[in-house]
Amino acid sequence: MAKKANTKTEETINLEAILFKCRDILRQAKNSGSFFEKRDMMLTLVFLRFIGEKYENGVAHLRSQLTKEGLDPDDENIVSAFFEDATFTDGTYNLPPEARWSTIINTPAPGLNVALDTALRSIATTTPGLKGCFVEGTFTQRNLAGNDMKRLVDEINKISHKAFGEEKDLIGRVYEYFLKEFAVNATKEEGEFYTPHDIVQLIAGLIEPFDGTIYDPCCGSGGMFIQSAELVRSKQGDISRINVYGQEKEAATYRLAKMNLALRGISHNLGPESDSTFTNDLHKGLYFDYIMANPPFNLKGWYNDNLKNDARWSDYDTPPESNANYAWILHMLSHLKHQTGVAGFLLANGALGDTDAQNIRRKLIENDKVEAIIVLPRELFITTDISVTLWILNQNKKGGRYHGRNLRNREHEILFMDLRTWTETPVKGEQKKKVRLSADQIKRASDIYFCWQSEGTDGLHYAEPELYRSVGIKEIEKNDFSLVPSRYIEFVDRDSDIDYDKILSQTAQRVSELLKSQQSNNETLRNALKQLGYECE
Description:
With about 525 residues, the chain is of the alpha/beta class. It contains 19 helices and twelve strands. The strands form two sheets. The chain has a ten-stranded mixed β-sheet, with helices on both faces.
């Protein structure tokens, strides 16, 4: 019976339930601190849990491999040769005993704060690749009561890749949860944001970052990189062929991204510190194969006078000071490889026809940098319901061989897609309405884009009403270089085929028949008119 009960518990447990319990523990505990301190404490615990799990899995895998080779994994010489390196061959970090999750979970409640900070200090000392992922002294400074900390650790112990799947960005999901539940300052404008899995899959599915260098100038928790790596794995690719570069302004989020990438064994360079991409570009002079980004929408306060003649917009105009939308575009364009670079990024819909940036937009179109504009459904995000567009920039629209496909010349053409009606897949259990893009929808969008790019497609007649259309630069010029898809995609007027005279005639005839009928009464008339769309007092 006990076994059956445990199985049921495992089946019904979910990440939201665990984090809800953790949230309540922190709300009730003394000294738990601000939103950011609660979040950082939780994320650091999850980091220790995951790196401990990765270590345990690495040891188990290595022991199995050695045994298959006829070697004794407990032999002193074997242990020295294979288990005492800084990392195992699969990139798993070799943790000292005091930093292992098995040590933490078995520490009595009164000693947990000290044990947790000892683990952090030990990791920072012995593993340079993990230095800067966390704030040492996190737990003793907060000094939660032993029983509260023990309850937290026991809950975090349930968050396991064995339970939820190795492919899940669980640290990113924990981050997203705390943005949503502790909503203080957790807004897109503050730079605290998490990009949902389906949106990242859409971007990655379109630009296919299978090898080379990937850059994100506002990388947040590193979710773009992680899910891109998972896409590479799903295509049976080698993530060792991907090198990740990023930058993040918020110190806590910068540490989170380093945690996330380190745990996944993804080669990365996020710069030596957190800093603003605009005022201190940490990757100046570098050019990348792919750029994926979800910049803060309509970011204000980004500009200062030192940026007036910045080289990033020397071929265009200085972006408007009112918001950073076009500053992000020109910054990313400045980092794309000149002949081959491709970028996919999100911006608020206002950037499609912003009059303040019309001249920049005109030059981008005339210089043939814009390849596709895709309006996404509302309510894809948890922390904002602003309408969003996916932009794709491409440095080479001339065609040729690309990722196993033969591409046609697409110069001076832009593909417009409008996916706003793709809202039939709701996300359950959210406090507000939220939808997601299904795998079939992501594939459908990719197929539309790839077919448009491919040899044999007639770009002048590539269209489906209310969904997509390929448009030439002359038509875009006639529309004052607006990139609003509804200006170009055909929308069907379904009301034009309705014979209103016939409907009104039928209605009048029905009312007349009722009035003449001896069986008719006021109630019957009211009901009949109600069925026809009229309300009676």
